[in-house]
Amino acid sequence: MENIQGILNGFVVLLNPSIFIYLIIGFFIGMFFGAVPGLTSCLAIALVLPLTYSMDIGSALIMCMGIFMAGIYSGSITAITINIPGAPSAMMTVLEGNKLMQNGQGAKALGHAAFGSMIGGTIGSILLMLIAPFSLKLALLIKTPGKFSLIFFALVVIILINRKSLAKGAIATFLGIMFATIGIDLMKPMVRFSFGIDVLTQGINLMAVIIGTFAISEVLIQAEKSKEEVDIKIEETKHKFKRRDFIPKWKDIKEIGIGAYIKSALIGFFVGVLPGAGGSMAAFISYSEAIRSSKHPERFGTSETLEGIAAAETANNAMCGGALVPMLAFGIPGDATTAVVLGVLIINGLQPGPQLMSTQFHLVAPMFAALFISALILLPLSLYILGPYCIKIVLIDRGILYASIATVAVVGAYVSTFSIFQMFMALIMGVIAYILRKQNFPITCLLLGFILGPMAEDYFRRALSLGHGNPLIFIRSADSFFFLVLTVVFYYFLIIRRPVK
Amino acid sequence: MWFNFKKKINNTMIICIILFIWNTIYMIEAINMGSPIRKGRVDVNFFPIVISCLMYIVTFYLLVHSFKQNKEIIDFNFTKKSKPILIIVFTIIYILLLKPIGYMLSSILYSFSIVSIFDSKKRSLYIKIIYSVIIAILIFLLYEKIFAIRLPKLGGIF
């Protein structure tokens, strides 16, 4: 009852126009970053991160939720219209979306993508509101050894989910953990890994890591692309849509099936709960399941079905709610975007976890409401109002775009730390991330390692102190044992059995 | 020839070698801190040593794996890399100039350099300068006027 009241209060907060405007601003920022190929909602939040210092933290989080939901959805716009996914989570939408576009049914595809995103985002938000209070109770039961094992589980899953190369995922994670150890030790007032360089005693700021890995590395990657690689034919963007064509027909929705939407939303939500999984995996698994359970699997990949778009878009937006569960309850981000949202909390002096949920629920509840409103109202409304023009977003001049991003990134590193050293660290992190990305090392693992590493070390040392140095404490403690077994189970299902082909 | 450098060494292997060197420096620093276990308790360097050991194992595995695969040939063509290198150089200059010459002038110069690097349409100098000034002013307004965050200024004005 108390939780329901708290969540309702979250909706009441959004009724304040001066706060609601942040949701709308965030939504349009997310829509822009999601729609432009190469830019992501994660980068958008990384760039607005320095601004949150001077904002009310509640408004900042609401804005982040708008960016998150819109960024995941709007990747489908360019995926359908010009065959380039605006965000990685829209990679499955390309398969049928662009075929429909070529067949003169682009508006229909965009409408169904928005409808699926709306259903997925709404169900994901509702599930978040229902599950978050229970996950809080669960989180409160976990003791120090269990907390270490939970983070260990999260780090292992983050590595395992990177199926392309486990070794590269592991290296990126370890590198993140190593970078996090530079500076003053958390438990003992002692400088570590300064390598004789005085300025390194202050350590590497989280802000510098986020800006470097997501913003600066992206500018470097984009600079390398040739004109031919990025040239978008102006003719492709000249297509005119009629607003009424965006509205999905009931006949099509019935053909896809209400059950299919719910199933995709559930897949998306629970994939989101897994650390490191993200929207692209949610879309991929949901799409695979849609093929498996479809009466006409042969129609997938052609313009004859909308099932694929519905499955992928419903799942990737439902992931938004799921990814927030481990972040809020345990302080473990579900994907790269929630890792950056976690950064928003940390740099504003808030520690995610059970305490945040129980003592600062007035900050968390508006986030849930913002996610819900973004999905249910802003998402279809934005397509209806801006749909005919949003395809033009991709025509923005790359010089202006990346000069703005680079300047905001560097100035952002300055205003968040007021330190020239941290600005250089942001640049160094950007160069490292650029080199790693070129060789397909997942930089999300680096960021998650950087965030989770200190927490893992802290709980590890505390647990060993409690156990008088005996590592068996991790097995004797029931909650810790549970997470260690869960790690083995995940290893078995993700690596040994390899279910998804 | 038994060892053809271009054919045998690939990018992943070079990264593994760099990581190996970094890890060794890290491990030496950790070991120099003293015993990882003192009075039956783990010390500040215990966890880093564990991570460093794991890093050695995974880096070695990836090195061997990439040596066996040997599919990707190292790219010795640096013309493609010239733009990222230029951006890095301009960013270093921007960071160094931000405080001494203030936000506005340094940002106009930086934006101009990035606009020029990304310019594929060979725009005129004036257009690029106008773009750069607009970018710098908009970001200034965003930080200073909307969010009231003070940026460094030359002589307290720009």
How much is the radius of gyration of chain B in Å?
24 Å
The biggest beta sheet of chain A is recorded as:
2 strands, antiparallel
- Integer average pLDDT of chain B: 85
Structural class of chain A: mainly alpha
Gross geometry of chain A: globular
Approximately how much helix is present in the residues of chain A?
A: over 70%
Report the order of strands and helices of chain A.
HHHHHHHHEEHHHHHHHHHHHHHHH
Class per helix and strand makeup of chain B? mainly alpha
Can you count the beta strands of chain B?
Answer: 2
Query: Order of SSEs of chain B, N→C?
Result: HHEEHHHH
Number of separate structural domains of chain A = 1
Strands side by side in the biggest sheet of chain B:
1-2
Provide a descriptive summary of the structure in words.
- The complex is a heterodimer of chains A (501) and B (158).
- Chain A has 501 residues and is mainly α.
- Chain A has one domain (2-496).
- Chain A has helices at 2-14, 17-35, 41-48, 57-81, 93-102, 106-141, 144-161, 166-181, 206-224, 227-230, 243-246, 250-256, 258-273, 278-293, 307-330, 336-347, 354-359, 361-390, 398-417, 420-438, 443-466, 473-476, 478-496, and strands at 183-184, 191-192.
- In chain A, helix 4 runs antiparallel to helix 6.
- The termini of chain A are far apart.
- Chain B folds into two domains: 5-69; 82-156.
- Chain B has helices at residues 5-8, 11-32, 46-69, 82-101, 103-118, 125-146; strands at 37-38, 41-42.
- A two-stranded antiparallel sheet of chain B has the order 1-2.
- Chain B is flat and about 65 Å long.
- Chain B has 158 residues and is mainly alpha-helical.
- The mean pLDDT of chain B is 85.
- The interface between A and B is large, with 66 and 68 residues.
Draw up the topology in text.
The complex is a heterodimer of chains A (501) and B (158).
Chain A: H1 2-14, H2 17-35, H3 41-48, H4 57-81, H5 93-102, H6 106-141, H7 144-161, H8 166-181, E1 183-184, E2 191-192, H9 206-224, H10 227-230, H11 243-246, H12 250-256, H13 258-273, H14 278-293, H15 307-330, H16 336-347, H17 354-359, H18 361-390, H19 398-417, H20 420-438, H21 443-466, H22 473-476, H23 478-496
Antiparallel strand pairs in A: 1-2
Helix pairs in contact in A: 1-18, 2-3, 2-4, 2-18, 3-4, 3-9, 3-16, 4-5, 4-6, 4-15, 4-16, 4-18, 5-6, 5-15, 6-13, 6-15, 6-18, 7-8, 7-21, 7-23, 8-21, 9-19, 9-20, 9-21, 13-14, 13-15, 14-15, 15-18, 19-20
Chain B: H1 5-8, H2 11-32, E1 37-38, E2 41-42, H3 46-69, H4 82-101, H5 103-118, H6 125-146
Helix pairs in contact in B: 2-3, 4-5, 5-6
